[in-house]
Amino acid sequence: MSFGRTMRAGICLASLLVACGDAAEGDGTPFEYQGTWVVEGARCEGQEQLRVVAVEPAADEDGALVARSLRADACLAAGASLWEGDPAGDGAVRLGDDEVGVQTQGKDVIRLDAPDGELTLRRVYPDTGPTPLPEIDDLSLSGQWLMEGYPCDEELVPQVVQVSHAGGTFSITKTLGDGCIEAGTRFVEGELDGLTMSGEGYLEAPDPWGDVEGFEVSGRVRVPEYFRLDALGVAVGFRRVLGDE
Questions:
Q1: Which class for 213: exposed (0-12), middle (13-18), buried (19 or more C-beta within 10 A)?
Q2: Is 96 left (phi over 0), alpha (psi -120 to 50) or beta?
Q3: What is the Cα–Cα distance from 61 to 68, expressed in whole angstroms?
Q4: Checking DSSP bridges between strand 109-112 and strand 143-148, what pairing results, if any?
Q5: Domain of life of the organism in this record (predicted)?
Q6: Range of the domain at 185
Q7: End position of a domain, from candidates 123, 155, 188
Q8: Radius of gyration (Cα) for the chain, nearest Å?
Q9: Does one domain contain both 64 and 98?
Q10: Whether the Cβ atoms of residue 217 and residue 229 lie closer than 8 Å to each other
């Protein structure tokens, strides 16, 4: 038995609440590894670095997958591999020069036992074209979202944002920065009336006098895990990051 398979067996015996290999939690359904994921716990130049990866089949190895970065940072180029291997078959993947154990939690969380600390991958709601719903009860937009279609310097790089929603109002704050809007900037504020969204967007943080040039934002919630905003002639989609604790 390989190192990875031995680790996988030990993990499965250790906890009945954590799914191992290719079975999702409790229902016998194979775990779906392919898709878009937000990675927490990675480190770059001594600092924690949030990342976005796409997990897809590896070209040169049957059954293997590769997690490729969708954004560049100081340590990982866009398109570079974060990890690769066959987590369902071996219970482990190659992370750089290390073979590390893989655990799955529910249907939307993957944990890697990285040498310098655990990596947590949280699934992004699939971009399969959600069917509009006429009514959504107890809707809350608060949480982490992946923003797609936002242009910056003629690029459409996936963004990660934090949405705060309470009392019929919402705001959106950048979690990952770029050359147009810095991380930590609250760049959209508005109201949610039923499923209809309206408000104001900003391209930069207010100056010391509180002045900032804004523009109109409108949109609609399609399902609890997806909404779209239209601003300055651009349609921007937001997909919820799943598996938050």
A1: exposed
A2: left
A3: 15
A4: unpaired
A5: Bacteria
A6: 143-240
A7: 123
A8: 20
A9: yes
A10: yes
For tokens 């480190």, what's the residue?
Answer: 43
Number of domains in the chain: 2
Helix (H, G, I), strand (E, B) or coil at 137: coil
Neighbours of 139 (CB within 10 A): 15
8 A C-beta contact, residue 173 and residue 181? no
Instruction: Please name which of 176, 175, 74, 196 lies closest in space to residue 132, comparing C-alpha atoms.
Output: 196
- With b for 16 or more beta-carbon neighbours within 10 A and e for fewer, the 43-54 pattern comes to eeeeeebbbbbb
Please indicate, yes or no, if residue 42 is contained in any of the structural domains: yes
Same domain, 46 and 99: yes
Identify the residue whose tokens are 């934002």. Answer: 217
CA geometry: angle 227, 37, 114, nearest 5 deg:
155
Residue type, 99: E
CA 111 and chain centroid, separation: 14
Question: Within this chain, do residues 43 and 97 fall inside the same structural domain, yes or no?
Answer: yes
CA angle 188-193-194, nearest 5°? Answer: 125
For residue 74, give the amino acid letter: A
Identify the CA nearest to 102 among candidates 3, 11, 2, 1.
11
